[in-house]
From TrEMBL:
Alphabetized UniProt keyword annotations: Cell outer membrane, Membrane, Receptor, Signal, TonB box, Transmembrane, Transmembrane beta strand, Transport
Membrane topology type: Multi-pass membrane protein
Provenance organism: Erythrobacter westpacificensis
Spans through the membrane: none
Pfam families the record matches: TonB_dep_Rec_b-barrel
Compartment list: Cell outer membrane
Signal peptide as annotated in the record: 1-24
Protein name: TonB-dependent copper receptor
Entries under InterPro entries matching the protein: Beta-barrel_TonB, Beta-barrel_TonB_sf, TonB-dep_rcpt-like
Limits of the TonB-dependent receptor-like beta-barrel domain: 228-664
Major subcellular site: membrane
Length: 705
């Protein structure tokens, strides 16, 4: 049986998926969530002493992935879309890409890569991640527009001290993995009192091509640096905060794509205020800007390098300016919240040939998307039942400039550019979201019910991608796509029900859900004469090796699924825990399945814990996926299972040493959502799904004071 470990590349010394809230005294305020509404993955070297974390058993020890998306993918309903060591995406209950909101320290932003080489969690090195918050099922309207769930990776920060005296703080994590000869080092140094806090962070990660049973996956090396500073100052019952980070991704392979990362140089700036301005009135203000500068090519790391005629270097910029404000009247348990937010995005993508200065083409010229939103959210109770009701409205205005082409560009793209320049390149849309969530704590059991209507405006790429290219926001399937000016917003009606049961020595949280999506955006054949090159778009696509291009278009879809997590303590020192997920997704407009849907999967672990030492094992398995999209020429995949073992030893207060073996039996497996290799100098044949890593010995040390 073929096997799997990549989605198991989970967390650091303490990692578990539990229903738990962020805390009001966390840096930047921490979005407050009821235990029935949010998943929290802790990634720390020291177990928390909060009421929620005290109820947790020691979690499995797992090699820390460079890609934080692999951590988020451990939640019930989660799966990893593997597009490279630093470019993975979270698939949540069958939806992925821009349908899943991703944030870092509560800040939302547009990615820079047209093929999502830098999805949001790219900017959260796992050695610096403190926790990952995931809204369960449906994100509340206060977090902004989001068709599926929402994630928020919180990086380690200095915290306010308990007293008035200065308190030094430190976090450190370092890891080595044999499968790709990689290392990762991250640290935070802070100084805090009861009134102010100041910290600096930094990390360095580097790895070579990874090994799998049968060879080496060429073009999978990576490197990334991050550094920054943050500060906070208490004003009454609130805090003024400011943070800056610089993320520098160096030459990094992306074998599912035609080009590899040369660099991502990205600056994050965010500041604001959160806290009570008068009793029972909380103000939350936040301003931010993210600037992404990106270069990708097929020369720097790609082997063999493309010949001069086919050499490509693509430059991409993305700038996002955000402003958010809200007032909450009442307590954490019962309140009315009103607020608004603004998100201004500018993007520009230019394709060049580094061997020919006259060869350039503006594939995404002066793209802009301005969104203005407002929301109201009410949380309260009616007898034993609790509820959260919310509604938001957003106005989005999108536009594109006129593409410029160099003198060396052949005739093929020129009529396409002219037609795009002559078209109406401005679009406006008003979207409305509504969410109703109900839960009723009844001692050991808490029933849950969610009903929602969510909308998503087409992305700038889906709407304004006038040039047929492989840019698809990370689908990494080798197909050529072209945009569609006439796309309508997606509209999803959602219902989910489940319960949380927590008894002595046992807990379980099952959920069933249904999502009906009108105007679901997916690649469809460009015209009715598939394979017949009878249009300018097909001619250009055929010149680039694909005579059957796909066009982003509105379809109809539905997704039905179930997932759960559980924990069992059959003995004082033994815990058995796991997650299971299943989703069935199909198109409603034609008889076909949706594209790139994860197969049913299971994670199961057993941990024996002593006072200072623990050891355990983890099994991860997935069934074969035979329900694939025929219209997208998707290929089925085989099932797999993989086993890992680990041990942990507490060296002292806050200091932990962890080591283990992943893929213990060195099994060969190809996760269904892995991209297909485009690298010639690799032991993975071109167009084959990337296999998971082989046997991996790893060791990690972490400390937190």
């Amino acid at each position: 049986m073929k096997t799997f470990t990549k989605a198991a590349l989970g967390a650091a010394c303490s990692l578990v998926c539990v229903p738990v809230a962020a805390h009001a005294n966390e840096p930047n305020g921490g979005a407050e969530q009821d235990a029935a509404l949010a998943d929290l993955i802790l990634v720390t070297g020291k177990r928390r002493t909060t009421e929620m974390a005290d109820e947790l058993a020691p979690p499995p020890g797992i090699a820390l992935p460079a890609d934080t998306a692999a951590i988020a993918a451990r939640i019930p309903g989660g799966a990893l879309v593997g597009n490279g060591a630093l470019s993975g995406q979270l698939s949540y209950r069958g939806l992925t890409g821009e349908r899943v909101l991703g944030r870092i320290n509560g800040q939302r932003f547009a990615t820079g890569g047209p093929n999502a080489m830098d999805p949001p969690l790219h900017y959260a090195p796992s050695v610096l991640v403190d926790r990952v918050l995931v809204a369960r099922g449906v994100a509340p309207v206060s977090q902004g527009p989001s068709l599926a769930g929402a994630t928020d990776a919180q990086l380690v920060q200095a915290r306010f001290a308990q007293g008035s005296s200065l308190e030094p703080q430190a976090h450190f994590a370092a890891q080595y993995r044999s499968v790709d000869d990689s290392y990762a080092v991250g640290a935070m140094l802070g100084l805090a009192s009861g009134d102010w806090r100041l910290g600096v962070i930094g990390s360095r990660e580097e790895g070579e091509d990874y090994d799998f049973p049968g060879g080496t996956a060429g073009g999978t090396s990576f490197e990334r640096d991050l550094y920054g500073a943050h500060a906070g100052y208490r004003i009454g019952d609130g805090e003024v905060f400011l943070e800056y980070r610089r993320s520098e991704t160096g030459p990094t392979g992306n074998p599912p794509f035609a080009l590899d990362i040369v660099y991502f140089d990205t600056d994050f700036l965010q500041g604001g205020y959160t806290g009570e301005v008068v009793p029972n009135v909380t103000l939350d203000l936040r301003l931010g800007h993210v600037a992404v500068r990106h270069l990708m090519d097929n020369q720097t790391t790609r082997l063999p390098a493309a010949p001069a005629m086919m050499a490509r270097a693509t430059f991409a910029d993305a700038d996002t300016t955000t402003a958010e404000a809200s007032l909450r009247f009442g307590s954490q348990a019962s309140y009315l919240q009103v607020g608004g937010d603004v998100e201004l995005v500018e993007k520009f993508v230019t394709i060049t040939n580094p061997a020919n200065a006259a060869f350039f083409i503006e594939a995404q010229p002066d793209l802009q998307s301005d969104r203005y939103g407002a929301f109201v959210q009410w949380r309260g109770s009616a007898g034993a039942a609790r509820f959260e009701l919310g509604a938001r409205i957003d106005r989005t205005e999108q536009s594109a400039g006129i593409p410029q082409l160099g003198a060396a560009i052949p005739m093929g793209p020129r009529p396409l550019a002219a037609a795009f320049a002559a078209a109406d390149r401005e679009r406006r849309a008003t979207t409305v979201d509504a969410v109703a969530r109900f839960w009723a704590p009844m001692g050991a059991i808490t029933p849950r019910l969610t009903l929602a209507r969510k909308e998503r405006v087409p992305s700038l790429l889906e709407r304004f991608g006038w040039l047929p290219t492989e840019a698809s926001f990370g689908l990494a399937d080798g197909n050529i796509y072209v945009g569609n000016l006439d796309l309508e917003p997606e509209t999803a009606l959602m219902a989910e029900a489940g319960f949380d049961l927590a008894a002595d020595g046992f807990s379980i949280r099952p959920t069933v859900y249904y999502r009906r999506v009108d105007n679901f955006i997916q690649g469809v054949p460009y015209d009715d004469t598939v394979g017949v090159v009878d249009s300018p778009v097909e001619m250009v696509a055929a010149m680039n090796g694909d005579p059957t291009p796909l066009r982003f278009d509105n379809t109809d879809a539905e997704l039905i699924g179930a997932d759960l997590d559980f924990a069992l303590r059959p003995a004082d020192r033994l815990e058995i825990a796991g997650t299971a997920s299943f989703v069935r997704a199909r198109r409603r407009d034609i008889d076909d399945d949706l594209y790139r849907i994860p197969p049913a999967n299971l994670r199961l672990s057993a941990v024996w814990s002593e006072d200072r030492f623990s050891f355990g094992t983890e099994l991860l398995a997935a069934s074969g996926q035979g329900r694939v999209s025929v219209s997208n020429d998707e290929q089925p995949s085989d099932g797999y299972a993989v086993v890992g073992v680990f041990g942990r030893y507490r060296l002292g207060e806050g200091v932990m040493l962890v080591a283990g073996l992943e893929n213990l039996f060195d099994a060969y497996y190809q996760p269904h959502l892995s991209g297909r290799s485009r690298v010639g100098a690799s032991d993975v044949p071109v167009t084959e799904r990337l296999p998971g890593p082989g046997r991996d010995a790893w060791v990690r040390m972490s400390a937190r004071f």
